[in-house]
TrEMBL record:
Keywords for the protein's UniProt record, in alphabetical order: Glycoprotein, Glycosyltransferase, Golgi apparatus, Membrane, Signal-anchor, Transferase, Transmembrane, Transmembrane helix
Associated pathway: Protein modification; protein glycosylation
Catalytic activity, EC: 2.4.1.-
Protein name: Fucosyltransferase
Amino acid sequence: MLDYIKLLLKSKWSVKNIILLILTVSVCVFIHVLIMHDLVKFVDSVSSAISFNNRQIEKQEIFKSPKYILLWYGSALVSPSEGNAVLKHLHCPVTDCIFTTNKHLLGNISNFNAIVFNENFLKSKHVIKPKVRLNSQIYTLNTVESAHNYPACELFLDDFFNWTFTYRLASDIVWSYITVTDVEGHIIAPSKSVVWRHSSAPVKPEIRSILAGKTKAAAWLVSNCNADSLRDEYVTRLQEHLFHFSLAIDIYGSCTGTKCTRGDCEEMVKEQYYFYMAFENSFAEDYVTEKVLHGYNNYAVPIVYGGANYSRFLPPGSYINAREMHPYRLALKIRQVISNRNLFMSYFTWTNLYKVTTSEVKVQHPLCHFCEALHSNRVQKAPAMKNFRFWWNGLNGMKWCLSNEYWSERNKMIIDSKDVYPLY
Ligand SMILES: *[C@@H]1O[C@H](CO)[C@@H](O)[C@H](O)[C@H]1NC(C)=O
Ligand SMILES: *[C@@H]1O[C@H](CO)[C@@H](O)[C@H](O)[C@H]1NC(C)=O
Ligand SMILES: *[C@@H]1O[C@H](CO)[C@@H](O)[C@H](O)[C@H]1NC(C)=O
């Protein structure tokens, strides 16, 4: 093209040549504009490709990079509480979560992916909160203590926790004391929508022979002697009625100072007792503790007493719920079962279909679920629970926040006995 322009310039300045020059220049400009347009488009698409890659990287980070979790008030549930040894120990599929109680580990608290608060955070009046909070941080309540013993009282707790990680079945991640699996190991309960099967097959011979050795009515291992659930009062009434039938609940532990035979409570319950008193210390929704396992593990029928809807937790026909019965009717029932071998056996037909275990054996541990959740896209949208106190305390729970000025032990008793067993 340059040669062509030179040739044009060398030639004489005729009108014809000038027109030719103008034409040439405009063609050049036109071509230039075309090229630039394409170039801009090209650059655009390159940069969008780059930013698309960035988004990809961010997305992958959610799933790949380690998550740092600060245990704000320490934790009895995460042990050891430093690093990820606890997850490795539990054989979690995802172990890329670093726990710590050291607030300064990452320099700034806002660098933690999650902060875990335990029940002490609910209870203390002069609670210390993190000073800075990023919206991306997942504030988690983690506790297996009953809401009754650790009510949520402070107003700020509404709209504070992004996740709940508790025994409550409606928690974001559930940490249940017990798990029911079928014999193949699939988790069946606890669940709000459990469908139980029934077995009419006979109880296995090895279980029958354990059951055949039982001689005593019921055992109760207890260390907290005046629990708010008034279980002690209930048991006293029950004892009165059992006494008519020459039966008794044998109470072991620090309340009575009675020690288990040969110091082995589990073996004693297994060898001697028809029933085991699985009475919770307080009533709270879904609060079913390992106490029922003392019964199940030792082939003693658990007599349960607590705030849960037990049909969501335990196989039907495997337990007796004292809260549905006047102490007199329960005494009658105990006598009836003890004096009828087949009736007693029928409380164990569930063993043909199910196993009741802790949540830590054979099934994946709740801490594994927590670490997985932190690596999932659940962290992207996790609005805090707005009505947390109501959710946690339940319909009648705010009274547990009142100070003793308004709330003496005496009127607590009167109100509760009516709530607890109307027939009483
Ligand atoms: C910690 O990080 C937050 C938010 O990123 C920032 O506002 C704050 O100043 C930092 N604190 C310190 C002590 O660096
Ligand atoms: C207990 O739970 C079962 C199963 O979810 C439900 O069908 C039943 O209505 C519940 N009972 C009460 C009293 O809430
Ligand atoms: C966690 O809750 C806080 C408080 O309501 C909120 O500002 C934040 O956006 C929530 N985090 C996520 C990831 O949704």
